[in-house]
């Protein structure tokens, strides 16, 4: 069974390159301040063996940039720039694809809601919030949209509407999950994934930024795209990560996920080019 190796944590690698991401825009603030380092981070992941670079648009949104003093036009240009940088890295590497990150509303809130689905908007409000950025990214030249870290059934329904309106745009959808059977708001993963069953432009449905220990169960529930975090735990009180998953162990786990049926495999928060190198090695 063939597989695509996705990249790892973009923000994690940017921090390793010396970037300060202590801002509600997270890695997206570098679209304003230092776009060259984003291009370098993408290239590092391609060099490590990734087939796909996921853009720095996860936390990028028009209202988020406007809140930082930009005009809506400037915000739209920066969202397009996130794709341009990944395309440039892909061309420099001589291989690969670009996935335009469509992050959740919770990323804009910057309060951890992408892991709870505790939102102040209903489905209609979420549809309105997503529409402008979705349309920008859908026409940006990316190979695929990565609708990722979705914690909420209502948000998934809103994204399904947008994907149904753009049948020529390829996408994958990945949820943040609280355990091996439920997305973060408590909805069954199977029920959430079923929203996209009739959409031929959705190439895969799965999970990301979820503990690796839940991945085998979620694959048994139908997940085919899997890019969990490193297995470390965020200590909110101490404001630091605890625990560690070795890249070699991560690569071994990736081989297991592939054998179980995953077709798109990578990493999310706290994974690095070293993790992706091990995934490539174990899947080779």
From TrEMBL:
InterPro entries: BHMT-like, HCY_dom, HCY_dom_sf, Hcy_S-methyltransferase. Residues 1-283 form the Hcy-binding domain. Its cofactor is Zn(2+). It holds the Pfam family S-methyl_trans. One of its GO terms (biological process) is S-methylmethionine cycle. Zn(2+) binds at residues 209, 268-269. It comes from the Bacteria. Signal peptide: none annotated. Keywords: Metal-binding, Methyltransferase, Transferase, Zinc. GO terms for molecular function: S-adenosylmethionine-homocysteine S-methyltransferase activity; zinc ion binding. NCBIfam families: PRK09485.1 (NF007020). This is S-methylmethionine:homocysteine methyltransferase.
